[in-house]
Amino acid sequence: MNGSQHRLVQVPPGVQCFVGAEARRRRRIEETVVSVFEGWDYEEIIPPLFDYADVFASPGLAARTYSFVGRDGSLLALRPDFTSLLAKIAAGRLADRPAPIRLYYSGEVLRYEPPQAGRQSELFQMGLEHLGGQSRSADAEILAVAAECLESLGIAEWVLALGHVGAFHGLVRALGLGEAAADLVGQRVEAKDADGVRAALAAARASGPAADALVRLSAMAGDRASLAEAAAVLACCPESAAAVAELQEVADALVAAGLGDRVAIDLGEVRGLDYYTGLVFRVYARGLGFEVGGGGRYDTLLARFGRPMPAVGFMLGLDRVALLLDRQQPGAAEAAARAERVEGDGLGSTLAHARSRRTAGARVRFAAGRGDSARRPR
Amino acid sequence: MSLTIALSKGKLLAGSESLFRRAGLPFPDDPGRKLVVALDGLRFLFVKDMDVPTYVEYGVADCGIAGRDVLLEMASDVYEPLDLGFGRCRLVVARPRGQEKDARSSALRVATKYPRVAAAHFLERGVSVEVVRLAGSVELAPGLGLSDCIVDVVETGRTLAENGLAVVEEVASSTARLVVNRASYHARRDEVMRLVAALTAAVGTMVGTPQ
Questions:
Q1: Greatest C-alpha distance within chain B
Q2: Residue A192 CA, distance from chain mean position
Q3: Which of A41, A54, B7, B157 has its CA 20 to 30 A from that of A100?
């Protein structure tokens, strides 16, 4: 390689490619997940790769969005997220469709990552959105779909950690915390740093039962029994108590459907995309330090696009599922079927033979003619 | 499979050992040069102090012990359920004695091992900074003309004084924290909670003991 060729094969940070067994494994994962989505009667949607930047105007993602100026001067962005895009389409192109609308997608989102982080900029997400309809029923449905995806993928030892942002927001509103104080408290709740929550509340001069409940919120995590404890502690705040009651209803439904062992509770999970309004959940599995996927309810997002209706969605990260399966089932990647070598001297007759073998379903390696490199003397 | 715990061989090692012993938990007697030690159902990783949150964030370790100073700098996405009370120190801004006040409006040059914390501290206050990242001996920088001030951790302040520096501002106070990987917290909940409970009880008995 000379100097300029060397520069041309360099890759920019954040991109990756997949060949052979890795690509095959990703395709299998995608097929498995998509067939579960189809099985629950979700329809595929293939949305555009870019849209007006306004569509994705979520503060949490703004700094990580690749945006560019179109020829007409409009600000465009490569999709950093599917949910906003699907909400827009449901309110626009699909405005005539009656709710509930069930849609699924499978594709890449692009997110800018700071150069030194070395993280992937291109993430492959497989997810669905349930727009409109009865909320508790939709919550239970998408959790069941998520569970079936994990079962179908053959993932072992996974849990659905359920939370509800209303528990946190109810307490913050009851205390009348300002935005800066709420951010700081939220960040400490997420870190499960009870001392940090206490200090942040003291700095904001917040006290009383709602403040005490906030300090305890970070540790309200565990099995389903922790919901009963949460209900008692949060009884002081109607909005938070209602959130726990909603979560209880969904958790009970999962138990009745045989998923009780898979349910974990985490009311300290208050982060996530800023459009979440209710149920939030993450999928964790042994062997991977990050969540495999997650989702939540976003009842106010569609109003932004002029078609107010409740909605809930979830997604699995293909890269993470692949990594998890590699960890849980090392060496399980299936090899490609062996190809049958179809050779001969006459190009036309060999091609005809290869086509007939293809019709019979064989995987063929076409090798016609004397000039074929495999038969050339060394 | 046993829980994996990331510890630093640095200044938090003695406090970690004492805490684990008080909690009735196993702890390697003398890890020596070994970086991975398995002992009575726990696996210990000995890594650089700045790397502990990274090992835990990526799930290579389920838990770890890291100073809050390190957690602030690394900004890792980990749970911090317990303040362990030892390893108390402060992250401060220090300047040469006699030059505590800075009257200039141009960018301040700051030498530090904590570039993220230092930049955030000044930028939030509307002060432009040029951060010079160093791996150690930060207190030499102002005297040698490398920087106007430093952001560093102090325990007693003696090293600062010996280098002609005075603390002008506290950025944060720090103690050792138990950190837990987010997936382990949920997927290995029983084991993690047993460890948290044992350490919580031991921290309770440490109140008032010398650091």
A1: 59
A2: 23
A3: A54
Which residue type, as a one-letter code, is found at position A180? A
Structure ipTM: 0.86
| Residue ranges in chain B modelled with pLDDT below 50 | 208-211
Give the tens place of pLDDT for each residue, A78-128.
999 999 999 999 999 999 999 999 999 999 999 987 766 667 889 999 999
Beta bridge pairs of residue B5: B44, B63
Are residues A21 and A75 located together in one domain of the fold? yes
Tell me, yes or no, whether A202 lies in a domain. no
Q: For A220, which residue in chain B has the nearest alpha carbon? A: B81
Determine the straight-line distance between the first and last CA of chain A, rounded to whole angstroms: 24
CB burial readout A200-222, b (16+ within 10 A) else e: bbeebebeeebbebbbbbbbbbb
Interface residues on B facing A, Cβ-Cβ cutoff 8 A:
56-60, 78-81, 83, 177, 180-189, 193
Residue B6 CA to residue B151 CA, distance in Å, equals 26
- Mind listing the pLDDT tens digit for each residue in A220-235? 888 888 899 999 999 9
Residue A130 lies in a domain: yes
Task: Answer yes or no: do A362 and A294 share one domain.
Answer: no
- SS3 assignment, position A310: coil
Chain A nearest-CA residue for B78 = A191
User: Which of B92, B58, B90, B50 has the alpha carbon at shortest distance from B74?
Assistant: B50
Mutate to test the interface with A, among B186, B189, B199 (most CBs of A within 10 A): B186
Inter-residue contact A344 to A353 (CB < 8 Å): yes
**Residue A25 CA from chain centroid, whole number:** 18
Q: Which tokens go with B186? A: 């949920």
B80 CB neighbours in chain A (<8 A) are: 191-193, 196
Within an 8 Å CB–CB cutoff, is residue A242 touching chain B? no
Q: Is A234 inside any structural domain? A: no
A77 and A100 in a single domain? The answer is yes
Compute the distance between CA of residue A67 and CA of residue A54 in angstroms, rounded to an integer. Answer: 10
Determine, for residues B59 and A195 on separate chains, whether the beta-carbon distance falls below 8 Å.
no
All residues of chain B having their beta carbon less than 8 Å from the beta carbon of residue A194 are 81
Residue A268 lies in a domain: no
Residue A90 to residue A131: CA distance in whole angstroms: 8
Structural domain total, chain A: 2
Report the SS3 class of residue A35. helix
A261 lies within 8 A of chain B by CB: no
Question: What would the mean pLDDT of A242-270 be, rounded to a whole number?
Answer: 95
Q: What is the pLDDT of residue A223?
A: 86
**Of A302, A320, A336, which residue sits at a domain end?**
A336
Q: Are residues A327 and A353 in the same domain?
A: no
**Which residues in chain A have Cβ-Cβ distances shorter than 8 Å to B2?**
none
Same-domain pairing of A29 and A92: yes
CA distance A277 to A298: 5
Choose the closest CB to B80 out of A158, A192, A266: A192
In terms of domains, do A332 and A346 share one? no
Q: Which range marks the domain in which residue A116 is found?
A: 11-157+286-336
**A308 and A323 both lie in a single domain:** yes
pLDDT in tens, A67-80: 999 999 999 999 99
Retrieve residue A202's tokens. 């003291």
